[in-house]
Write a structure and sequence with these properties.
The chain is mainly beta. The chain is built from one helix and eight strands. The chain has an eight-stranded antiparallel barrel.
């Protein structure tokens, strides 16, 4: 009986050192997603809007900060051989409100513009550096599937005349790892 009383007193004395909460067994150090989308662009070179596709990735290394990389290809569907192709990478800032994840980003990249063919001159393409800014919204549909709506404004450097300043709308989906 004495050993039981001593054991109970030891447990009571040690109660202040015991913790009832378990430490987390897994925590996410980074966040990664890869997606594709449909892009509609005002090329600033043609009077009509042009369509194409895009692919992107987001790697968020902290709660609100990350990087984004994007590839876009939009082409005139009215018989000309004009297209714009861009490769971009940059920083991204995002917030999380339940299933909604609004974000903004600033990017730098390279754009390839395919000029039209004129009688006696074949078409050609030239590459230009560019800056881009954008904002959008990711919506978590499922645990591993996000939907995206995105707007981007680009400024192509060194493009003849006054430069090229297309704006693009993208709607897509991403697999979230």
């Amino acid at each position: 009986m004495l050993t039981r009383v001593l054991a109970l007193m030891c447990l009571i004395a040690m109660a202040s050192h015991l913790h009832a909460q378990a430490k987390p067994t897994a925590s996410r150090k980074a966040d990664f997603q890869v997606g594709i989308g449909f892009t509609n662009a005002n090329s600033d070179y043609l009077p009509n809007r042009i369509n194409g596709g895009s692919a992107y990735f987001d790697f968020d290394f902290s709660r609100h900060l990350g990087i984004e990389g994007a590839f876009r290809f939009v082409k005139d569907g009215h018989g000309s051989e004009i297209y714009e192709k861009t490769y971009e990478i940059g920083g991204r800032y995002h917030l999380t409100y339940g299933r909604f994840m609004p974000y903004g980003r600033v990017m730098y990249g390279r754009g390839v513009f395919n000029y039209p063919a004129y009688p006696g001159y074949p078409h050609s393409n030239l590459a230009y550096n560019l800056f881009a800014g954008g904002a959008g919204l990711d919506y978590r549909l499922l645990t591993h599937l996000n939907a995206r709506a995105d707007f981007e404004y680009q400024r192509w450097l060194g493009f003849p005349q006054n430069g090229l300043t297309p704006n693009l709308l993208t709607f897509g989906a991403a697999y979230h790892f």
